[in-house]
Amino acid sequence: MTDLRLAPRTGREVRVRAPGKVNLSLRVGPRRPDGYHPLATVFQAVSVYEDVVASASADLRVTVSGPQADRVPTDASNLALRAARALAARTGIDEGVHLHLHKGVPVAGGMAGGSADAAAALIACDAFWGTALSREELHEVASELGSDVPFLLMGQTAVGSGRGDLLTAALSRGEYHWAFGVRDEGLATPAVFEEFDRLAAGREALDAGGDVALLQALRAGDAPALGALLHNDLQDAALELVPDLVETLAVAEDAGALGVVVSGSGPTVAALARSRQHALVIAAAMTAAGVADAVLTASGPVPGARVVAGSDVL
Ligand SMILES: C[C@@](CO)(OP(=O)(O)O)[C@H](O)COP(=O)(O)OP(=O)(O)OC[C@H]1O[C@@H](n2ccc(N)nc2=O)[C@H](O)[C@@H]1O
Ligand SMILES: Nc1ncnc2c1ncn2[C@@H]1O[C@H](COP(=O)(O)OP(=O)(O)O)[C@@H](O)[C@H]1O
Q: Is 148 in the active site?
């Protein structure tokens, strides 16, 4: 029998899980003087996850695992480290933490994996350091870190305005099933907004009331209606930068998707399926046609960043 006193002492750790997202609708207005664009968006959190573990360390440090880990910076620019630093500054904490990120969300794919890491790191460090911020305070820190971070704290379904950080929960009935076509080569969000500016020069102001029918479809749990209403103003810009995405969208549509759309700033393609089984069929069609480097299936809506286990391991 193992003598527990001889086992390595791994110390206390806090585990947090945060989801990725898809923008069911993303409407973009003209660039503001501060460089951001006003958005009217409907977010859905989906069951593609980032797992973050906080444990003791003398300094602030991050390690990363998962299929695309080599594409994630581990220096001070890492969004999880930035989140830890922002929380420490706000609460006057002068302690270290080691954050390990296991990434399930595609990197630079328009599904907000980095923002999910930031949201998860906020929850993890808040529990690890015992700073016990309120939801409102966490939301404030989150919105300083990035436009998408507050939604990954909140999860489920929400309408976003401002630069995407002002949120109102939206009613949604039932479960929606997705297939995602992922590219090895990501797209940088600022580059896609720049391309949008180039294409949209002179276009109308933001159509903030454009999602009434989509929100009604969500309330009714009407997946076919939702599929027909999926919308992304950044899609043309993403297609301009990665023209092959047209084929990915077409293959998913031919496989019977209820609707297809580029997720956020892309290049991930999101296809709404009739069922979990149908999502697997669409994913297989994308793989067989060679129009995606990897495929994922998921469902939504799911909760935002939350502690899944925290223990004192002796
Ligand atoms: C496009 C969206 C849609 O949900 O998602 P992703 O595709 O990145 O996942 C988001 O607006 C991205 O949010 P996030 O990735 O947090 O962006 P931020 O860090 O705040 O901003 C990165 C850059 O994107 C541009 N940006 C972002 C948000 C916004 N409303 N207008 C912008 O012009 C700006 O150039 C900014 O410097
Ligand atoms: N923890 C992180 N995970 C992923 N990317 C990160 C992280 N921290 C910083 N980044 C940087 O942010 C970029 C985009 O982040 P990500 O959230 O994955 O994509 P998107 O904004 O398209 O949803 C990456 O290319 C990477 O350089």
A: yes
At 66-99, the pLDDT tens digits run: 999 999 999 999 999 999 999 999 999 999 999 9
- 3-state DSSP assignment of residue 290: coil
Residue type at position 131: T
ipTM surpasses 0.90:
yes
103 is catalytic: no
- CATH code for 11-25+46-157? 3.30.230.10
Residue identifier of the C-alpha nearest atom 2 of ligand 1: 264
80 lines ligand 2 (CB under 6 A): yes
Structure tokens at 88: 């420490």
The CATH number of 176-300 is which of 3.10.450.50, 3.30.420.140, 3.10.105.10, 3.30.70.890?
A: 3.30.70.890
Where are the alpha helices (H) located in the chain, listed in sequence order?
79-91, 113-129, 135-145, 149-154, 189-200, 212-220, 223-229, 235-241, 245-254, 276-289
